Amino acid sequence: MIKVTNFLPDDYQKRRLRRRANLICSLIGGGTVLALGLTMIGLFLTSLGTAATRLQAEQQYQEASKQIEQLKQLEERKAGLVHKVDLSTDLLERVPRSLLLARLVKYLPENTSLMTLAMKLDEIEVRAPESSKKAPEPASGDAAKDTAAKTAAKPAMVKVKTCVFHLTGLAPTDVEVAEFMSKLTSDPLFKDVDLRFSEQFPVREGVVMRRFEMNFHLDPGAAKLVESAPDARVAAAVAPSDEGEDAEAER
């Protein structure tokens, strides 16, 4: 068997093996670092895509929330308008505005005029009709007397929807204001006529009149009064211009 003799120094061979091992380790380490870098870049790009998708979803959710809120507001406004229309129909179709305005104008004294007239639906308390009151349970002695006294002292009240009027006008003196208020109070269609104030109001230089403000509301049973016209005052107010036409015809 032939013996191979290596003439290279031992330290040279060791350095050669060490360099080879270092090169292999460097390649392995570099490959690992490169793989880790590529993985991190991929994760970063994925997170950017996820963030963009989440931001877009949040924007769409906010827009949808705004649309839903607007839809709710529209539904509430629609319900309120429908409710007001229903109430106005119940109150005004049976008692036309032209009739109410004709009554107000008819009651104006001479040289008295209206400046503003506002009407709105409001809830007021009125005395409950006798048929709606519950019959009290029978009692005896002092208890019956106390119950009767309380019932008489505190009449039953109910809340109803009706038209509330607010007007301002001009009159020469407080006498015309009192006359106008008296006529409104005597009218069966108007209730709780209240004079808020009456004050001096300069119309122009050298002319001073009384400016007044009144509040009152339409009787909840005004529709029945107009339909049935039980007395001459209501019947006359339905056609307020008949007297004037008759007077002109006589002339």
Topology:
Blueprint (H helix, E strand, L loop, with lengths): L9 H83 L4 H11 L5 E15 L14 H12 L3 E15 L2 H13 L3 E15 L2 E12 L3 H7 L3 H7 L3 H9 L1
Characterization of the model:
By secondary structure, the chain is an alpha+beta fold. The chain folds into two domains: 8-93; 97-132 and 145-250, no CATH class. 57% of the residues lie in helices and 23% in strands. It has helices spanning 10-92, 97-107, 142-153, 174-186, 222-228, 232-238, 242-250, and strands spanning 113-127, 157-171, 190-204, 207-218. It has a four-stranded antiparallel β-sheet, covered by helices on one side. It is rod-shaped and about 150 Å long. Mean pLDDT is 78; it is low at 230-251.
In summary, what is this structure?
With 251 residues, this protein is of the alpha+beta class. The protein has helices at 10-92, 97-107, 142-153, 174-186, 222-228, 232-238, 242-250; strands spanning 113-127, 157-171, 190-204, 207-218.
Strand content: 15-25%
Helix % is 55-70%
Total of domains: 2
What is the 3D shape? Answer: rod-shaped
Q: Strand tally, please?
A: 4
Tally of helical segments: 7
How is the largest sheet built, in terms of strand order?
1-2-4-3
Tag the structure with descriptive keywords.
251 residues; four-stranded antiparallel beta sheet; 7 helices; 4 strands; 57% helix; disordered C terminus
